[in-house]
Amino acid sequence: MAPPVFAPPPTGIDITERTEAFKGYFKIERYKLRHELFEGGWSNLVTREVFERGHAAAILPYDPHLKAFVLCRQFRIGAHAGGMPPWQIELVAGIIEDGEKPEDVARREAVEEAGVTVSDVIPISHYAVSPGGTSETVYLYLGRVDSSKAGGLHGVPDEDEHIEVQVVTEDDFRTMIDTGVIANASTLLAGLWFFLNRDKVIAQWT
User: What is the pTM of this model?
Assistant: First the structure.
């Protein structure tokens, strides 16, 4: 059976006002807008706030020789405020600055946050983090690394980074996903993608 196919969506968006509602470490912008409806016509005037924190690149470092991953653990205030464990086990990730290429950011952050050098990269996805409330998107990659000397504490002190790095086997990573130890979107997405595509990755990198 063929999957259901959505018709092309409405395209009209009329932004009547856009203002800066807050600016601190991050920024919030307030929009007043109307949009076209599926059945024709236009919506009411709606007001929405959008959290602006930029865009990110994240990479799951994988060692095909040792069949292991390099993962980071660091404090996240958002997780704490949301009632989740504040010390999150995550991918390597960083904010993309103006003029930077996402893959270059992922490679740089692998060195800064985990002390590993990425030799090859496979793109996984480019996705919206929480499209109902933030403009942030993430470019997601799998990166080939040598994990034999990975571990310890890393991060850039001037950026208040304090990161614990661990090497995790495939079996342990899968268990961490299945039991809810991994509790953030980018790490879940990259891990599930890997286990769905493991055979192709191994064939390409060994």
Answer: 0.91
